[in-house]
């Protein structure tokens, strides 16, 4: 009987340790952007919702901020507070985004998508970026 109780307690401990909610779910994607395209070359901040094959970029799409010609920051548009497709953040100005539902504001001019104000408990989900092709192709992935 003691042995059964011991095994039951251990199983309970292992099953409760794995009940962590992800802030923003991980999705695998890869997007390449031609930086010579006027949609991207004339702006420091822009949004990408789908890649060239029609697959969704990130969860809700991606907001991209250009710091320099070879340094870009990319973040998911899903608010870390609301986590609903209807509440995706939008560009407020060149360096911030805002959630229309909870009004949280995020700084996208840093590598971390920092919270500036509002109820959001975490910064925006950041994605990896690199510039290739002699500075003409921006790659974004998770």
Search tags:
six-stranded antiparallel sheet; alpha+beta; single chain; four-stranded antiparallel sheet; 14% helix; 10 strands; 2 helices; 142 residues; Rieske Iron-sulfur Protein
Number of helices, where a helix is a run of at least 4 consecutive DSSP H or I residues: 2
- For the record, what CATH class applies? Mainly Beta
Based on secondary structure, the structural category is alpha+beta
User: How many strands appear in the DSSP assignment?
Assistant: 10
Report the average pLDDT across residues.
86
- CATH A-level architecture: 3-layer Sandwich
Question: What number of structural domains do the residues give?
Answer: 1
Poorly predicted runs are: 4-20
N to C succession of SSEs: HEHEEEEEEEEE
CA gyration radius, whole angstroms = 19 Å
- Order of strands across the main sheet: 1-10-9-4-3-2
Provide the helix percentage. 10-25%
CATH topology: Rieske Iron-sulfur Protein
Largest sheet: 6 strands, antiparallel
């Amino acid at each position: 009987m003691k042995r059964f109780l011991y095994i039951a307690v251990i199983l309970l401990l292992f099953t409760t340790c794995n009940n962590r909610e992800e802030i923003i779910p991980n999705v695998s994607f890869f997007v390449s952007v031609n930086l010579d395209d006027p949609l991207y070359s004339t702006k420091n901040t822009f949004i990408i919702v789908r890649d060239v094959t029609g697959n969704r970029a990130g969860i809700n799409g991606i907001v991209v901020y250009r710091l320099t010609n070879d340094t870009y920051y990319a973040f998911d548009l899903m608010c870390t507070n609301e986590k609903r497709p209807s509440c995706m953040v939008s560009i407020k100005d060149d360096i911030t985004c805002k959630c229309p539902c909870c009004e949280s504001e995020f700084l996208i001019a840093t590598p971390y998508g920092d919270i500036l104000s509002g109820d959001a408990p975490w910064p925006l989900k950041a994605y990896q970026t690199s510039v290739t092709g002699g500075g003409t192709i921006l790659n974004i992935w998770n």
